[in-house]
Known about the structure:
This protein is α/β, with parallel strands linked by helices. The protein has two domains: about 5-10 and about 255-380, Aspartate Aminotransferase, domain 1, CATH 3.90.1150.10; about 15-250, Type I PLP-dependent aspartate aminotransferase-like (Major domain) (Aspartate Aminotransferase, domain 2), CATH 3.40.640.10. It contains eleven helices and twelve strands. The protein has helices spanning about 15-25, 35-55, 70-85, 100-110, 130-135, 160-165, 185-190, 240-275, 305-315, 335-340, 360-380; strands spanning about 5, 65-70, 90-95, 115-120, 140-145, 170-175, 195-200, 210-215, 280, 295-300, 320, 350-355. Strand 3 (about 90-95), helix 4 (about 100-110) and strand 4 (about 115-120) form a beta-alpha-beta unit. The longest helix has about 35 residues, at about 240-275. The radius of gyration is 21 Å and the shape is globular. The chain starts with a strand and ends with a helix. Residues about 325-330 have low confidence and may be disordered. Its EC number is 2.8.1.7. It is an enzyme of class 2 (transferase). Keywords: Iron, Iron-sulfur, Metal-binding, Pyridoxal phosphate, Transferase. It holds the Pfam family Aminotran_5.
Amino acid sequence: MQIYLDSCATTAPRQEVINLMQKTLQQGWGNPSSLHHWGERASLTLEKARWQVASLINAPSPDSIIFTSGGTEADNLAIFGITAQYSNPQHIIISAVEHSAIALPAQMLEDKGWQVTRLPVNRKGRVNPQDLAQAIQDNTVLVSIIYGQSEVGTIQPIKELATIAKKNGILFHTDAVQIAGRLTIDVEDLAVDLLSLSAHKYYGIQGAGALYIRQGVRLQPLNGGGGQEKGLRSGTQALGAIASMGLASQLAQEDLESESLKLRELRDYLFELLSPCHHLVITGDLLHRLPHHASFLIKSDSGQLTGRKMVRELNFAGIAISAGSACNSGKTQPSKILLAMGYNPQEAVKGIRISLAHHTTKEDIEWTAMVIKQIIKRILETE
């Protein structure tokens, strides 16, 4: 039996999405910037995808969508696109539980003399909006807070945080990569200025992402070239991947309510099945949580069963999960996210993440819970 439960890392593309990419590569491969028929056809494909992505997040205009290679590039464009406009270092605010696509650019800025405030989180991984209000300085130019944390599933109070930034005349960005296709996103209601998306997190193709930019917000481009994507992201667009992102966005919007409910029920069923296991402690916020996300800390006095070892053991059984976020799964260092939430270094190497998708079944959940219990019994309860 093969069970894939690592959808926060990537999702399997839907067949409709694969079919569209193949069709685009075979029949619609023109350059969207060309003036002839092939270019016009490609341009129509591009702009349809832009409209579909804008619709998923209720953006007021498709023109507010800039296509990128994924969530990381979208995050970098947001961070550096704002900060590059300043000749002297200023101040930005992020959270202590950001994805590396935000945390590392912030560190790069700090190395160049910028001030970076990293807002603390509570034991559940949530930012206190009052901490943001107190952290704002006269030279604060940007706040970037992740919407849904990929490692522990906690959802931040983005609307409240963005409102605080707006009242102080400060731009607000959020990495919504894990939220898109799982929960409703309304950029008008959230009052965010910038928002990042990645297609492969909601059954699209890897290599396509987008940055929403509110009208009136100016960014400095990261690269020079032909001026595609309104001059903000030069380079011929990856039309097949972008067209597929558009369709994935449309399908995600259509299925959002039913899929979110299904995944939430399966997630809670997994929590229920594993609740008798005293060696597992749920991490993250149970109330404010991604519907497809379950995460645990393995409790053990010894280091025999770390998160990485659990991943390997389950892989032997044909089950895919993650030890923390995919970008850190190959490292042995304690999770920076768990450390920020107050866990000690010995505990912070024992986190696991199980993330579901539309193909996940009740039988998958039952089998996985049984295998996890067997692994724990074999390794921990015989110590």
